[in-house]
Amino acid sequence: MSNNTNTPRGLNWLFGNGRRGPSRHVDPSPLALRLETIGREHSGKSALKIAYFKGPLQGAQPSGLELTAAEPTVMAEWIRDALQMYRELSRRGLVTTLEPEVTEFHLFDADNRLAVLQHREVVGQVLSHTTGDSSDEQKAQYQAYVDNLSRATILQVVLSCPPDATAADMDRFEADLYLHAAYLRKALEVRDSGWPCAVALVLTKLDTRFEDEEEARTALTDERLRGVLSRLVRIVEGSTKVGMGAIFPVSAFGFDNAVPAPEANGQVRVLAPGSSPLSQGETEWILKPDRSPAPFNLTGLVWWSLMAGHLLHPVDGRERDMGRVAALLAEDLAAMDAWFVPLICKGGRPS
To answer: CA-based, 20 to 30 A from 294: which of 50, 87, 172, 252?
Structure first.
């Protein structure tokens, strides 16, 4: 869902390209949860992030909990950027993330700030471009990325669902599994925080393969999802450094909202060479005319991530409050009928 064009001005929070200005002071009392992603270029990471505006940021859940910006001025920036991007998405695909940057989403109960979800952008080319003979600069970017992964509260491993069962699509998906499993294993290997993290295995772009939620749920049973992602599931369930894990099928655009980008001659546009062999030949997806993203299961993914972060955070005197918030998040997950497959993990809540 990405291409290699330059990032439009003003869309910094969507793509992490550039800075908005001096960092803002954050109240130290809310729980700080670090969300790090593992996903190569064009896997759908940026699409999920811009879909927050139509999903997790849509208002309070039944519990009263709401995810929003820290300040009204920041929310105004997000609104402007999101509306501009939704207009652009009917003409072209998403641009590639060029610089990693942290976006902070704040969890409120009315005017009481409870937690800060620190979402770090990742340059997907770091995963697919870095090899043993890469330049020193490329290797330094890789090391910085791995260091960030090692300090995550929540890891989201993002892979795109093959749009078809052609040999090329399935070969690409198999290679994605190899690559993402290697990075997940590395992230856990270097983790030395003394407390376990949560891992969400995220299968994106469901809408490119299935017509609607019913068809997707029928095809992707719990057993099927565990089998398709077994290489990753074994790592999550076998590591003592993972306290909670789950599989989340999601769609950033929502069902029946995306179409392959057409070329002038009416042929389907595929992504140009240049990123990596993994992304060459992939279909570029854009929004249908006069449509906005209607993300599927994205709020469930974010609410589960917040819940897992509260449950796994080290005991620091706030465990009663953390448990209360986790219970509210769990109630919301049940109310929204979030679709996820829980994994059985060895790590537990630290003491």
So the answer is: 172
Which residue segments constitute the domains of the chain, with CATH numbers given? 2-343 (3.40.50.300)
pTM of the model: 0.85
Tokens matching residue 167: 């040999």
d(CA 252, CA 249): 10
Question: Checking phi first, is residue 16 left (phi over 0); if not, alpha (psi -120 to 50) or beta?
Answer: left
pLDDT of residue 110: 95
Cα atoms found within 13 Å of the Cα of residue 334, Cβ hemisphere only: 7
Instruction: Write the CA distances from 202 to 19, 37, 71, 177, integer angstroms.
Output: 28, 10, 29, 12
50-60 pLDDT per residue, tens:
889 999 999 99
Per the listing, tokens 């409050």 go with 321
Tell me whether residue 332 is exposed, middle or buried, using C-beta atoms within 10 angstroms of its C-beta: 0 to 12, 13 to 18, 19 or more: buried
More confident residue, 236 or 134: 236
